[in-house]
Amino acid sequence: MSRLPAAAIVAVYALLASSSFAQAPDAAKATAPAPQPANDYAKAENWLCRPDRDDACSADLTTTVVAADGALSIEKFTADPRAPIDCFYIYPTVSRDVTGNSDMVAGPEERSVVQHQFARFGSKCRLYAPLYRQITLTALQAMIAGKVMPMDRTLGYDDVVDAWNYYLKNDNKGRGVVLVGHSQGSSMLTQLIAREIEGKPVRSQVVSALLLGWNVAVPVGKDVGGSFKEMPLCRSASQTGCVISYASFRSNVPPPSNTRFGKVPGDNMMAACTNPAALAGGHADLHAYLGAARGSTSAIEPAPWVTPPQKIDTPFVAVPGLLSAECVWNEHGSYLEVTVAADPKDPRVDDIVGDVVAGGKVQADWGLHLIDANLAMGDLLNVVAEQSKAYTAKK
Known about the structure:
Elements: H1 6-15, H2 19-23, H3 25-29, E1 47-49, E2 63-66, E3 72-75, E4 85-90, H4 108-117, E5 125-130, H5 137-144, H6 155-172, E6 177-182, H7 184-197, E7 206-212, E8 217-219, E9 242-244, E10 248-250, E11 269-271, E12 284-285, E13 290-291, E14 316-318, E15 323-330, E16 333-340, E17 357-358, E18 361-362, H8 372-375, H9 377-394
Helix pairs in contact: 6-7
């Protein structure tokens, strides 16, 4: 197991999503290992999640709801085995394998990220999450240190394509499907949509694509173009065949000039921002599901959720009314601006963790990348529920 704290680990995989990784001379020198055989996705062990079995998506999602007055209540989670649509998830770079590309063995890091970013979608859809041979944290750490480590940059994407094609042939059976990804996972799905979905019959089955923590390009003032030729940004919960994408930053720590997220190359182009809590625009409260303890999505110990402190045994907390967000655009990029409604007079905590911190200093260029998915998880679920209704009504 790596001794890096959680924030450092996610900061490393976030680097993969930045243009600096692709442009780094040391990264360019890395040689690819010998070609690897394709994975057989007929094997159950090559999936983190599939319906009707006990796997990574069976994780505990019980949540303690922390009200502003300090009252605590428990929210149970119930999956829907009869959900009318599917969800297909590609996770971000979390593998701690010592090779340049990960193996096909699910470790605690893959299971943890599924718990935080995907398992909760089981209340709205059947869950599919393949393992894939991604570039590892080890390889990225070596690159940051100026060392060369063999890595195959196409292997992970080829795995994703193979898993997608296996799913379509053997599991989909004409059902609608939501694509879900974060950071490198969103990068993989962006390529998949552009190369394997747009312009093909399966395009009509895509309920939506949730490409979180990633720079999806659109022309300024438009909802389609750039990364995709056909799929527009979602502007209402009843709209289907569309894309939700954002990168989150604190309202009091906006993206600096060297931001990793919220900007794309090209004249008259911008990074997409769609607020899951207000797809049509404007400011709205977020329905967040945050990790309750240190090590879940941050290396920093959260402050007590209430004062005086009370023991919280659930893996997640919800803080209704504490967080809100709006998509904004400034000279450094387009992003989801997250506001914390701190009230020192009430007993509830006045801030959350989720920043990337190095040497005790917040790294503003990463924003709240660690918790992009957690911040709006409840809102994403609500949108998927409405999109599911709209899609099945059309069918």
